[in-house]
Amino acid sequence: MPSEKNKDYIVKSVEKALQVLNSFSFNSPTLSLTQLSRINRLNKTTVLRILRTLEKHNFVEYLCKDGRYTIGVEVYKLGNVFFYNLDLEKKARPHLTRLANEFKKTIHLCVLDEDKALYLDKIESDEQAVRIMISKKGGYAPLHCTGVGKVLLAFQPDAKKEAILNNLKFKRFTKNTITDINVLKKELDKIQKQGYALDL
Fold first, then answer.
1. How would you list the strands of the sheet with 140-142, edge to edge?
2. What DSSP letter does each residue of 150-185 carry, written as one string?
3. Which of 127-136, 145-154, 183-192 has the weakest average pLDDT?
4. Whole-angstrom Cα distance, residue 167 to residue 100?
5. How far apart (Å, rounded) are the C-alpha atoms in residues 20 and 40?
6. Which of 116, 134, 136 is nearest to 174 (CA)?
7. Is the pLDDT of residue 59 over 60?
8. Which of 3, 75, 152, 164 has the most neighbouring CB atoms within 10 Å?
9. Other Cβ atoms within 10 Å of 8 Cβ, number
10. Given 3-state DSSP classes, what are the helix, strand and coil percentages for the chain, each rounded to the nearest 5?
11. Each residue's pLDDT tens digit, 74-119
């Protein structure tokens, strides 16, 4: 077995292709060649070759009308494989449904994915008056200003929590958004003690 420290086993071209794929998001579902080149700090020729290869295998699709690219059907198929085989989601679903119906609220199942919270599932009560439109299964939530994000961050081991906090981008969304690391640390300590987090 090769040593995990041996970086020679990393295939740079594959790494660049994954980097390009990861540029797409709910906020940026379509991107031009110029945008992808700028985001990934790669020259256009390299990005174009990657896109042509991904397009050939249906991992990206070229939109002729506006000259932009978007995620292809193969990514969707792989995502479905991931979610279908995720035992956590299957086991949690009955509990999410029970909570949604009992409290008449939207219930989310999330996990920590690097510096974001990943939505694995979302259940809304039939009797719920207000629907939460912004959260989507497979989408992401920031850690510093959402209940799911803060509760996931609060219960990480100290070393991991500190590493995430030191690299976190404190983007402001509303006047109540926490944008100071020390304020967030105090909030995380409070969450640890009380066992839950709140969206304000």
1. 107-113, 116-123, 140-142
2. HHHHHTS-HHHHHHHHHH------STT----HHHHH
3. 127-136
4. 34
5. 7
6. 134
7. yes
8. 152
9. 7
10. 50, 15, 40
11. 988 888 787 767 677 778 889 999 998 898 888 899 988 888 898 8
- Report the C-alpha gap between 168 and 88 in whole angstroms: 27
Encoded tokens for 195: 């066992």
Secondary structure letter of residue 9 according to DSSP: G
Tokens 């295998």 found at = 57
What's the Rg (C-alpha) of the chain? 20
> Contact 48/61 with Cβ under 8 angstroms?
no
List, in order, residues 6 or more apart from 185 with CB less than 8 Å away: 165
pLDDT at 154: 93
The two three-digit tokens of residue 74, written as one number? 């193969």
Crossing angle of helices 44-56 and 33-40, rounded to 10°: 110
**Domains identified in the chain and CATH numbers:** 10-72 (1.10.10.10), 80-194 (3.30.450.40)
- Map residue 115 onto helix, strand or coil: coil
pTM: 0.59
Confidence of residue 44 (pLDDT cuts 50, 70, 90): very high
